[in-house]
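To whoever picks this up:

The nightly regression suite flagged Glutaredoxin-like protein NrdH as changed. Nothing in the input moved, so I suspect the structure step. Input below, exactly as stored in the fixture:
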Amino acid sequence: MCITIYSKPDCVQCSATYQALSRRNIPYQIVDLTKDPQALAIIRAMGYQQVPVVIAGTQHWSGFRPDKINMLTENV
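Regenerated output under the current build:
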């Protein structure tokens, strides 16, 4: 499963999400929304206004969500 984290610099919740995924050895890619206006438009069109936005397969959410990350561990 490809996991993409849409984030911005100096985001505490983004950093917590990266750390939680890394501790579980779950690979992910980061898209910086301050450098990618098209990605920002897509995330806004999805209704999100808070980062990080995590897209993992058909699941997606915003904010630091340990419960969702734990569910990914079960699926990896």
